[in-house]
Amino acid sequence: MHAVHVAPAIAKLLLERRLATFHKAANDLVFTTASGRELDYRHVGHGFRDAVKRAGLQAPGRLSLHSLRHGFASLLIAERMNVVFVSR
User: Fold this and answer.
1) Which of 32, 57, 58, 65 has its CA 20 to 30 A from that of 22?
2) Would the pTM of this model clear 0.85, i.e. be above it?
């Protein structure tokens, strides 16, 4: 498994989320169903689109989790972050 580097504020939120669940083993996922199983990506996508709608966000085309990934990468590259680092 590769090390993942995230902003300290995000790491803190993820740790709080993990500590609030019953599933705390090293290999347990952070975001799961109530029984600790992995989330179905289709349900996650629906939840994201519902949250976008409730927030009143609009964009040309469909805003998806994948588009967030590309948008974030674009912001990092615009701030002169190394493209190879961003792609990894």
Assistant:
1) 65
2) no
